[in-house]
Every structure is written in structure tokens, then in C-alpha cells.
Amino acid sequence: MLSYPMADVPLDLIADIICRLPAKAILRFRRVSKIWKYLIDCSNFVNLHMKKSIESQTHFHLIIRKNSDLFTVNLDLFDPAVELIHPLMCYGSRINIWGSCNGILCICNVAEDIALWNPSTRKHRILPSLPPERRRDGVLRIFNESYGFGFDSVHDDFKLLKISQFIGLDDPMDFDSHVKVFSLRKFCWMPIESTSYILRYSSTMGVFVNNALHWVVSENLGMGLADLVVAFDLGTGRFEEIPLPELTDFKCEIHVDVLGGCLCLIANYDRVRFEVWVMKEYGVQESWMKLLTVSQVDFVGSIKSVKPLTYSKTGCKVLLLHNRRKLIWYDLDTQTVHDAVIDGLPHSFDAETLVESLISVDAYRENPIKVLEEERDDFLSEGFKLVL
């Protein structure tokens, strides 16, 4: 029970203090009293905690994937990597990460079991399965498949998009595409209008920025046209093209990613030089800014791939994943690189960033649980009046 002095502290002040703490510490405070439990569980506080973390760039983690193993690295402390116990069976094969958003990871195993999982709360939900896409006319085709995971802020819903495409080996015009979207709130898959864009890289996941998922695509495989970037808006359900920066040579290989909440583009010039561009104002071509350039002379050995992950606390450095083997700091002021030393990393790995959150995947249900949450929020509203 709360002591008498503590009982006099307004709930909004308590919320403003504890929302700055790591998620695991906050979850322990649910045991203080029923009032604190209700406070921490209510949607206002959950959103406030995530907002504070994003604004202050605290409580961010690297999620490291090596085959079927996942590890986490606290970016506030740069402690040694710690193994995560994920909720899926591995069957001796790899685990795929199809995206991270608002503290929720979307992961899948070789049996195509899909889970939405919050590593901070250790809660998850298994999604309903989909039958594999197949063409049964006997004609050999290239099969491309990609997923993208994000949060639809318009409809307050986590969504997973699946794109399946068949392309004729001899005739690129022999093209068939299927698009489905999963809604966590409705808890079902729904077919939506397909796209004529062709996925440029098979199995590359969609990048979530500004309520949309992004892919590098081509308009026509047979015409040798330059690649494009398209965005699927989770709110409107439509595909739209994103203007590209003024690259020195459009024959380079391009990829998209996210850095500091902004869409970024990685231009690969024959694995000799890599440029990283950042779109400071979403959708505005003039806002593209070339953030950094790395070349062969900056590294020991070859340079096959570069993936931007996060800024340093001061914003003066960018953490890069080099060749899926080591983490590198790029100093934006001196334009030099040096190793980011983290113990416990595997020999080769993929990496994603994840912000800690208290979001419960069970909260997104169209059932009486939502009504109870709203009643609980109303109960707290007299003492919890912080503007989010």
C-alpha cells in the first residue's frame, strides 16, 4: 500500500516521473498498488512512455539475428549482447524479422508461423496462417514474396502486408501479383487491390516510415528502366511513388531503410562507394540530404553492404552495419569510421532497432476488453491529465 505522503502525490506527476524509466522497471511498479497498476496499464500512460522514449532517444535496443537466435543490445549502455527467448519454434532453421514498430517485433519461422511479440513485456500473439501462393498451370516463373509491418495511426491498428508475385521466365509481361493485409484489431487477413510494380529484391522487407511501408521496385523488368521507391499507405491502402534524390548515377543499386525516424536511401556504386541519403521532410524531393559517403579506402577488406542503424546520443555519429559482420561508427564531423565494440555479438548477423514499449498486443481486440480499458482510463482521467 502507498504511504500517506505518497498517496498525496498527484497521478499526473507520478506518471511524468516514471514514464522516463525503462519498461522493465515500470512493469515492476505495477505491484505498488492497484492505482499504480491501473495507471501503468492505461493507454494514455503507455503512449506517453513511448513518446518520451522517442523524443529523448532513450530505451532503444539493437535486435541482433543470427539464424534462429535473437540477441538484444541496450543502446543506452552498449552492454554485451544478451540472448532473447522468442516465442516461436525454430525447427532447426532460421527466424526472420519482418519489421519492428512501437516496441513490437514481427517474427516468423520456417513453418511460416507468424508472431507479433513485445520483448519488453514478453507477451505475444500468433497470427492466423495463410495458405502459400501457387500457380498451377505448369509454367515456370520467378516467385517474389515480401512482408512489411507497421502501425496504422489513422485506424489505431498494427498491420502486416504480404506481397506475392509471379513473373514469367521467358516473358516478363507474364506477371501476376497478390496483396493481402493483416489487421491486428480485426485479427484477420484481407485481400486488397494489387500493384503493377515489380519487387526489385526478393524477400526484402518493407520499411516503415510515416504511416507507410516502402519498397524498391521496377515498373517493367524487360525495359531496363531505373528503379523506383513506392510507399503503401496503411491508412488509405494505396501505393504511391516517392521522389528520389538527385543521384550522380541512376545506374547504381538502391535500397531503402529508416534512420532517426526518417526515410533513407542507400546508393551502392558497384560496391566501391556507398552513399546514404536522408529525406528530412517526408515526400518532399528537395529535402533529400546526402548524409555520408563511405568507400573502399574507409574499410579493411571488401565493402559489400552498408546498413544505417541509428544516430549517437549527440547526433554526431551514425552506427552502421558493415557487411553483416561488424558495427561501425561513422563520424559526421570528421568523416571517419571506427569500430563500435560490443561483446557477445555473433560472427555474422542482421540488425534492427527497437524502442522499448509497454504496448500489449492483446489490447488490439474488437471485444469487451477494449470497453474495460476505456472504463479504466475514464477512472484515471481525473488524476492523469498530461497532454500527449
Proportion of strand residues: 35-45%
Low-confidence stretches: none
Roughly what is the average pLDDT, rounded to an integer? 88
The beta-strand count equals 25
Instruction: Based on Cα principal axes, name the global outline.
Output: globular
Tally of helical segments:
6
- Main β-sheet description: 5 strands, antiparallel
Question: Mind telling me the C-alpha Rg?
Answer: 22 Å
Distance between the termini: 28 Å
The helix content, as a percent range, equals 10-25%
Structural class: mainly beta
Protein name: F-box domain-containing protein
Pfam family, one: F-box
Domain F-box: 3-48
InterPro entries: F-box-assoc_dom_typ1, F-box-assoc_interact_dom, F-box-like_dom_sf, F-box_dom, Gal_Oxase/kelch_b-propeller, SCF_F-box_component
Account of the protein in words:
The structure is a single chain. Helices cover 14% and strands 40% of the residues. The protein is mainly beta and 388 residues long. The protein has a domain at 4-53 and 374-380. Strands 12, 13, 14, 15 and 16 form a five-stranded antiparallel sheet that branches. The protein has a four-stranded antiparallel sheet with strand order 3-2-1-25. Strands 4-5-6-7 form a four-stranded antiparallel sheet, with no helix packed on it. Strand 23 (326-331) and strand 24 form a beta hairpin. The protein is globular. The model has no long low-confidence stretch (mean pLDDT 88). This is F-box domain-containing protein. InterPro entries: F-box-assoc_dom_typ1 (IPR006527), F-box-assoc_interact_dom (IPR017451), F-box-like_dom_sf (IPR036047), F-box_dom (IPR001810), Gal_Oxase/kelch_b-propeller (IPR011043), SCF_F-box_component (IPR050796). It holds the Pfam family F-box. Residues 3-48 form the F-box domain.
